[in-house]
Give the backbone structure.
Amino acid sequence: MARNDGEAGMTLVVKTVTRLTVGLIFLYGIYIVLNGHLSPGGGFAGGVIIALSFINLFLAFGAKKTFEIIRKDAVTALESVGAVLFLGIALLGFIDGGFFSNFLPQGELFSLVSGGAIPLSNIAICIKVGAGIFGMFLALVAFRGSEREGK
Amino acid sequence: MAGEYIPLLVAVPLAGAFFCALAARKSGVLADTIGTLIVALVLALSIYAVVSPPSTHAVGGWPAPLGILLVMDGLASLMLLVVSLVAFLVMIYSLSYMNAYSGRWQFHTLFLLMLAGMNGVVITGDLFNLFVFLEVASLASYALVAFGTGKHELEAAFKYAVMGSLGSLLLLLGIAFLYGYTGTLNMAHMAERLGELGVAPITVAALVLLLSGFALKAAIVPFHSWLPDAHPSAPAPISAMLSGVLIKSLGVYTIARLVFNVYGASPDLLNLLLVLGAVSMGIGVILALRQWDMKRLLAYHSVSQVGYMILGFGLGSPLGILGGLFHLFNHSIFKSLLFLNSGALEQATGTRNLKEMGGLSGRMPTTSWTTLSASMSISGVPPFSGFWSKLIIVMACVEQGRWFYGAWAILVSVLTLASFLKVTKFAFLGKLGKGFENVREVPWPMRFGMVVLALLCIVGGLMLVPEVKEMVLTPAVRVLDHGILTLGEVVRL
């Protein structure tokens, strides 16, 4: 791996490209999540894309820069929070009918704010999946790091 | 609708798992408390399920063949009672036992996830949903087997994960075949459609795939090779959960559902179960006889005892099914107790090798008598619980004139007794082993779990008292004996 002198991460070319694209990738993930109930995609797909933007950042700029944006324990906490939120929305369905019932007004078909509790569930899934995938990446990186130190 | 509480049986442990993970940041004691309270709540819900009449719940308000239907019938409530009872006692035991390990909150999280998965498998009426929960429970169990992160644990967990994933793959393929043929995933609706469409090569293929997959999860011979590695490698409370309830809710229960409630019990299918059960019983116990590692010995006995349950189901008569289900209940009690005992012995003496132990009955009286009661129960010595369930299975064999299977069950029981006399002799009787002068009895949370389970072994025969039997066992027998219910009948439960 070609390294930039003295700085963590990859070369200037990679860093510049990443700086330009990473925000777009992140926004695209959010777009996929928010339109999950209208078009293909949803919480899982959007969550993966958001996690990829962070992984991109990590690969290009190194661990230190990335952890300035999001701390490591925040990632694991967010994972649990996402799951609890999703389950909470499912349990709130008991207000109207039962488990997983759509308890919010459904709104106008094909408008962004519609679908009742579905977009909220998508957001919860996005938090869970995004944090989960980035957390897995971090765990594997830490494992490789410790392996290299062992040698 | 009366079944509003049913989803809570999955939602509560699932929420508990993630709350444990969050709470562990603040304090470990908080995570312990949450874990124990959650399991106690699940136990309370299961007891409520047993005493209340059967009911169903349509998830999200979607009616049955379209949406997922959760079904709480007699069989489901019996399984829930077994799972949550063992889980509760194991949880209390592990409060003290898991002090030897780091990362206790991860243990609680995985434990509760596994519990949520098992409960989900039991209450769902949808075949694909069953697969999802089965995977949740399996994945949690792979991680739990590797919990010690030593060389042997990782190797066993890897083997378990490969074999388990292979089983899941077979199941997924079988479910896909059935879905393609019947156009539905609801089990009752699927049974109805199978009746209308009749037998075709693809339904037979699906049956073979599903039976192989579930038999792999239940560790029936010849699909048992992963179990003697995986179960001993896990921490003792997890071995107790895996051998005590996981193989039953993921394997035995699902086989019973598939054979009796989806396909309908044909004579050929029942004969297949009889043979599988008998082979499992024999090979399991013969392999167990020559083990010196206590946990490995217990693991082989799980293979053998699962054979008894399958044999009971294979008889197909109400008495046989009763025997199979009652043995399932008893086995989950005494086998989890035996694994907890082995954990206590290992913690006190630092070894699992029976040859190195000896004379521990004076040093560890509680562990000694609880092990003895569980050993007598698994060997079918009256009046312990295992005797009654084995008696019913043998009686059911005789009732049908299947003398060979009855004699086989008795022979296997004698071999089991021989194997457990070995455990008692080498671990507890004789001269005190070298270096064990300072061995102490284990702390009270561990003793509490063991004593309650041992008492259940002793009084387990009372399950056959008509009032208790009518409430717990008979509804479950009726579900299987009735065979196929149409979707309409299930929804009206």
Residues 146 and 154 of chain B are 5 Å apart (CA to CA). Strands of chain B lie at 55-58, 69-72. The mean pLDDT of chain B is 91. The longest helix of chain B spans residues 151-182.
